[in-house]
Amino acid sequence: MARLLLLELLTVLVARKSITWLSDVKFFAAIVPPMPVLGYAYLQFLVTLALIAWLRIRGARFSDYGFRNCGPLWLFTIITIAAIATSVILPAMLDPLLSNYFGKTPRDLSRFATLVGNLPQFLYVMPLVWIFAAFGEEFLYRGFILENVHRILGGGNAAMVAAIIVQAVLFGTGHAYQGPVGMIPIGVGGIVYGLLYWAGGRRLWPLILGHGVVDTIGFTIMFKGGTP
Question: Residue 167 is part of which domain span?
Fold first, then answer.
């Protein structure tokens, strides 16, 4: 079973990375246009949908990948608020330090430049942010990758800690387009999100909600011309 889980994990990672590689090929870019602002996120989300279909085919329980009930309301609320706070506090603390260290402006958000003042594009992007980022990324990183690594390593607390670190590293490098000033806080945030996932009874729903709220606030600030 561990071999199957490892094969699943590697296949998904290679499939998603291949989209990044292909996007640099002129012929591919000519026939498969990127989405406004979100680039090729829709293709990466197709990989996630294919993964969900595969898990269904092989009879996996989605509850084993974080899709459990919401749990007690008090715990759901605490985890959601903690997720939002993490995504606000960590960048506020780390971005200035990293910016000074690397000698660069805080984060490279140039790919979102066309969003400023563009209401049709903002309204077009926001639902997709909830689908691709809030749902898609939380399922992929905190659900699938974390749980697969945890099981591959044999389960237990030590395996869970290792799995949290692995998914956080992949989560951070998945945002490499923001440069090191953006990538490092996102990776650290991935560790906190992984711990919150664990503390919340391995439930994705509060993290999905928190992730979506944070991205909604960030994109709204960018739409208004500010820096989130």
Answer: 2-10+37-55+62-223
The confidence band for 105, taking pLDDT boundaries of 50, 70 and 90, is low
Residue 79 has pLDDT above 90, yes or no: yes
Rounded CA-CA distance 38/132 in Å is: 9
CA-angle at 170, arms to 210 and 70, nearest 5°: 30
Instruction: Record the pTM.
Output: 0.94
Mean pLDDT, residues 159-167: 98
Q: Is residue 66 part of a domain?
A: yes
Paired tokens of 102: 């690397």
How high does pLDDT run on average in the chain? Answer: 94
Q: How many domains does the chain have?
A: 1
| Integer CA distances (angstroms), 165 to 24, 42, 94, 153, 171, in order | 29, 26, 18, 13, 10
47 assigned to some structural domain: yes
Task: Answer whether residue 17 is part of any domain.
Answer: no
